Hints:
3 helices; single chain; mainly alpha; two-stranded antiparallel ribbon; flat; 7% strand
Amino acid sequence: MAKNDINENHVHVLPENQTFIPMRINDKQMILGMEVDSFGVLMIAMVIGNFTQTILFSLGVGAILVACNFYIKSNYPKGRLAHILWWRGIYVPKETLRFPDCFKRTFYR
């Protein structure tokens, strides 16, 4: 039996040890055509603008932040900012396997 055999009813049949996972599980969460984090930034900008009575200016700043976030997410991998800050010694979390002490430059002898 091949990985994706199709029987006479045109239904995918997988081997017993595999499960079919639809692609929509991995889709991005969207609200009004925007990703959730972009929508959240715009909503926070709108609330701050409402309190300070500068809603158009705040929405403009929020739109610029969303555009910067989109550019960074599309061009750089996740965790790049944390890695740069760790490498420069600005962000020093507890020493773990993923983040060794950034001030210790010799790991093996």
